[in-house]
Amino acid sequence: MPDNNLTLNPLVCCSIGIAFFFSFMAAVDQGHAHSGGLNKSGCHNNGSTGQYHCHRRSNNSSSASNEMPSLMDENYYNQQLAAQLGGQTEVTIDFNYGLKGNASKQASTRIDIVTDRYAIEGGLDKRSSLDSIQQAVFAATQLGLKPAVAIYDTDNSWGKYEHRIWQVAQKLGIHFIWVSQGKVIEK
Predict the structure, then answer these.
(1) DSSP summary character for residue 128
(2) Phi, psi (rounded to 5 degrees) for 9
(3) What are the backbone dihedrals phi and psi of residue 81, each rounded to the nearest 5 degrees, phi first?
(4) pLDDT value at position 42?
(5) Which one-letter DSSP state was computed for residue 10?
(6) Residues facing 149 on adjacent strands
(7) Are 121 and 111 in contact (CB under 8 A)?
(8) How confident is residue 1, by pLDDT bands cut at 50, 70 and 90?
(9) What fold, for 63-186?
(10) Distances, alpha carbon 108 to alpha carbons 49, 95, 184, in Å
(11) Nearest alpha-carbon partner for 82 in 49, 127, 47, 112
C-alpha cells in the first residue's frame, strides 16, 4: 500500500512561497502598466470610463510618412474642433441609474464636446472609436441635445472604421463629422 503521508521541507515551502509572491507582484505591476491594449502611441480608451488617454509616447519611429504626429491625439483634435464649433470639451454629466423598485445610484460620464446643439463624441480612426455612437447618444439624451460623432483621420484615407461608424450613424440619423487633413467634413 502506498504511503499517502507527505512530509514537506519548511525551507522548500518558504522558497516556493516567496517565488510565488514575487511572480504575482510582477504580474500585478505589469497589469497596472496597461502594457496590453495600447495603440502604437501608447494610448487606449479606458473601458470603464470611455476616456481616451495615453500612458507613454510612441516608440514607433518607422511610422508611415503620411501618418499624423503622435502628439496630435484625440484630445488635440477635440480641442481644435470644439474651438471651431464654439463648443466646450470634456464635459462631465452626472446621472442616476438603477432598476425600478431599487434604490437609485449616481454616476457620471464625460462627453468630448458639447455645443449648443450637439453632444459630440470624438475618436481617432481606430477600432477604439467603434463605441463613439453609444457615448454620443447617451450624453445627448442626458443633456437634451442631438448626438454627433467626430472621427479624426490619422492616415489620410477613408478607412474601415470611419466607414463602419459613418454607416451606422447614417442609418440612425446621427450627425457625422469627419476631420481629415485639417478640413471638417460634415455628413
Answers:
(1) G
(2) -75, 125
(3) -65, -40
(4) 60
(5) H
(6) 121, 176
(7) yes
(8) very low
(9) Trna Endonuclease; Chain: A, domain 1 (3.40.1350)
(10) 9, 6, 29
(11) 112
3-state secondary structure of 161: helix
- pLDDT for 70 equals 45
All three cell numbers of 150, joined, read 467626430
The residue assigned the cell 510565488 is 20
Q: Kindly indicate the confidence band of residue 50, based on its pLDDT and cuts at 50, 70 and 90.
A: low
Q: Tell me the β-bridge partners of 148.
A: 120, 175
What pLDDT does 4 receive?
47
Task: Provide DSSP, 55-77.
Answer: SS----TT--TTSPPTTS-HHHH
Largest CA distance in the chain: 85
**92 in Cβ contact with 108 (< 8 Å):** yes
- In order of 31, 35, 78, 128, 171, the CA distances from 41 in angstroms are 18, 12, 17, 13, 32
Cα 178 to Cα 187: distance, rounded to the nearest angstrom: 8
Q: What is the structure's pLDDT at 187?
A: 76
Q: How far apart are CA 63 and CA 60, in angstroms?
A: 6
Residues 6+ apart with CB under 8 A from 132: 121, 122, 123, 149, 151, 165
* C-beta atoms surrounding 168 within 10 Å: 15
